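Students often ask why inverse folding is considered easier than folding. One informal answer: many sequences map to the same fold, so there is more than one right answer. In these notes we will look at a single instance of the problem. The structure comes first.
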């Protein structure tokens, strides 16, 4: 079962609650919230206050993608603000096991994100602790970038490992996902699809959610 995770990074920030409502009504399961600090990535975006403000407006699963250095400093703020899942970048954590444990102890689900070049073996020994692995299909920092096809074999390999180990870990992909690439990534084994510009850049974002879901089923 594929889940669609619209990324509000491409939504109208002056009308966020309305944007969220549209994709929720269209059946999207996760709301992908991109947090950037201007250090780990060049861009600066959303903080815990926005998550807190959106929380009473939606019943969607809040999937918070932290593209920040030393995420351990902010994990508890995001969980308190209403994150259902907190995803940290392996490249941003010196003590990745500690960061992952911190999220779990706070009672939220936990994910680890890997940049396109980062090998899977960085999570080999903590994989059973993870609810989700986020494989970046662009270099993080901006919406609207082109899908990097070199990540496809990595999705396949991770899907194989998860099956071999009998785990329920979800594989999320993020970057350049649209109706065309959705078919490729689900074919490789991804089951949570983040899409920003393909949804909120469309004339009808609700229809775009449905189109991506349909393409993913092919
Ligand atoms: C990129 C972010 C993405 C971004 C995806 O660094 O992590 O979530 O919003 O945008 P699109 O779908 O436009 O590539
Ligand atoms: Zn993201």
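Output (designed amino acids):
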């Amino acid at each position: 079962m594929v889940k669609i995770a619209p990324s509000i990074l491409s939504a109208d920030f002056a009308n966020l609650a309305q944007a969220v409502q549209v994709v929720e009504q269209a059946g999207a399961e996760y709301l992908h919230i991109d947090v950037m600090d201007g250090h780990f990535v060049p861009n600066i975006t959303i903080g815990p206050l926005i998550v807190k403000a959106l929380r009473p407006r939606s019943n969607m699963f809040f999937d918070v993608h932290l593209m920040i250095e030393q995420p351990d400093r902010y994990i508890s703020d995001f969980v308190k603000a209403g994150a259902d899942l907190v995803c940290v970048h392996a490249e941003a954590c010196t003590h990745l096991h500690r960061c992952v444990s911190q999220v779990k102890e706070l009672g939220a689900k936990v994910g680890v994100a890997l940049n396109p070049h980062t090998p899977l073996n960085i999570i080999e020994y903590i994989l059973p602790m993870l609810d989700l692995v986020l494989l970046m299909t662009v270099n993080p920092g901006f919406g609207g970038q082109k899908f990097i096809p070199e990540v496809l074999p990595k999705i396949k390999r991770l899907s194989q490992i998860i099956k071999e180990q009998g785990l329920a870990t979800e594989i999320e992909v993020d970057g350049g996902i649209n109706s065309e690439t959705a078919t490729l990534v689900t074919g490789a084994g991804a089951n949570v699809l983040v899409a920003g510009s393909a949804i909120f850049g469309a004339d009808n974002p609700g229809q775009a959610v449905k189109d991506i879901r349909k393409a993913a089923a092919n």
